[in-house]
Amino acid sequence: MSSNGRSVRRLLNRSVQILAHHLNSWQQLMHDKSVLEMARNRTLVMGGVFCLAFLLVTIRLFDVMVLHSHNDEMVEDVILAEQDTSHRADIVDRNGEILATHLVTASVYANPKVILNAEDAALKLSTLMPDLDYETVLKKLKSDKGFIWIVRHIPPKLQHEMNLLGIPGVYLQKDQRRVYPHGNLVSHVLGYCGIDNLGLAGIEKQFDVRLRKDSKPLQLGLDVRVQHIVRDELSKAVLEFRAEGANAMVMEVETGEILAMVSLPDYDPNLPNQNAVEATFNKNTLGIYESGSVFKIFNTAIALESGKAKLATLYDASAPIRVGSKKITDFKGKNRPLEVREVFIYSSNIGSAKMALDFGSEMQRQYLGRLGLLSAPMLELPEIGAPLVPKTWSDVTTMTVSYGYGIAVSPLMLVDAVRTVITGIKKFSATMLKRDPSTLDQVEGQQIISPKTAEHIRNLMRLVVTEGTAKKADVPGYEVFGKTGTAHRNKGRSGYNNSRRTTFIGAFPKSNPKYILILFMDDPKPTKETYGYATGGWTAAPVSGRIISRMAPLLDVQPVFDDNQGDHLGGSIIPISHKIQ
């Protein structure tokens, strides 16, 4: 082979090698481009993932920092609202003794929107506080609300343990709880507050806005010392006479301030959701009762004030009064004509009925209305009952009302009306608040009973204590005067039964009445000491006497031991035992 052929072959081989090298280079380049494309695609995908994650984080940050900040404002508004209702002014008695105040506590709340693990949080909370139901707490923590209460008013030890749990989204908030240092003692007067410290009964409800808006203590006319005496003696009497319950009030005669108001059974206002319904019933203001013979105070006052009778006027009580198939009779009647004074002292139903017929139905209704016995009274309590008044006022009604049947009133209405009768001062409403005596002249009222008639009634009531049915209410030195009553309880259509409600209403001292007391006992039972009797003179009167003997020295009423225990009616002093045969 020539040299030219070899040169050509070498050239061709070289060309092939170059071509193959370029082909390989192109293939390598194409492979590298594929790798780069894949890398680029992967980079884009990863970048997209990171962008999405960043977006999610941004959204969450926006929710927490902006939207959640708005929720925090809502939570703060709720808490501030709760704090606004929880702050309440103290309630104090006439001497500044605290009756109701607040205790700083803490409450547990949560924001379900930031709870990380609702199941775990609910388990921890229900374990720490066994009273909490796990399912109930879990349901709350899974709600879509921004604020929920978990539990209110937990003690300091639990507060510390709650802090140790450190559950995200569960917080402690300072709170206030209404507390009543005297427990049951003043329950029916004060009432109670709910879980959010809103007044739900009694003074707490009546003055709810005032107690929340004004930090100045609210001062009542109540005297916690007298309140204690009344409750103590009533509690003993309920046990002694196996009574269903009892109630009493003490009122200052001049001002109408109520110094004590007790109704048994009572309740603990610190435990508003754990008390029986019947225990929360205030017999003094809500109870409406037929009062029996204490109504003879009004009957006699009307007869004397109207001029239809004088103290010596005679009414024949020799025989019962027949009314259809019924008869009006006397308990241990004298069976002879009786003077007005005797009708009152011996508590004659027959004499009272005939006395009422003398002045008539219209006059009876007018006087009872002016004394506040025909309409609901005004008092700073929401629990006020209205009287049960006869629809038609016939002669029969007039007779039965004269001795306390056929009309039902509350003890509050009764004691306030008697206060007007025995003083002869103008009629004005009683009050639960401390009243400034210097403002009494500005209080609106009307003159109903003259001072002369009032004096006659006081003298008659004094004779009931010294010579009549209320001897056991007498307290030497304090000129106690009063009237007992015993009324069979009305059971509606079934009529009256053998259970009774006994009453004593009285005041002291007779020469210058300072304080008036009313006391009711629900179905007291006779005892060996009462010789089988359970009337007002044997049950309500002695309890009232014990109350007066304890509270009179406390109230700085000076005893007087020159009481002649005579009849000061008509000018001369004649012992009633000599005058009445």
Task: Describe what you observe in this structure.
The chain is of the alpha+beta class. The protein has helices at residues 3-86, 118-128, 134-141, 156-165, 187-190, 202-206, 208-213, 224-240, 296-306, 340-345, 349-370, 395-402, 411-423, 451-466, 540-554, 576-579, and strands at 91-92, 98-110, 148-154, 170-179, 218-219, 245-252, 258-264, 314-316, 321-323, 326-328, 337-339, 481-490, 496-508, 515-522. Strands 1, 2, 3, 4 and 5 form a five-stranded mixed β-sheet that branches. Strands 7-6-14-13-12 form a five-stranded antiparallel β-sheet, with helices on both faces. It is rod-shaped and about 175 Å long. The protein starts with a helix and ends with a helix.
Structural class: alpha+beta
CATH topology of the largest domain: Beta-lactamase
At CATH level 2, the architecture of the largest domain is: 3-Layer(aba) Sandwich
How many helices? The count is: 16
**Number of structurally distinct domains:** 3
Beta-strand percentage range: 15-25%
Largest sheet: 5 strands, mixed
Global outline: rod-shaped
- Which stretches are poorly predicted, pLDDT < 50 over at least 5 residues? 64-85, 565-581
Order of H and E elements: HEEHHEHEHHHEHEEHEEEEHHHHHEEEHH
Mean pLDDT: 84
Q: Using the coordinates above, name the CATH class of the largest domain.
A: Alpha Beta
Radius of gyration of CA atoms, rounded to a whole number? 42 Å
Helical content (DSSP H or I, runs of 4+)? 40-55%
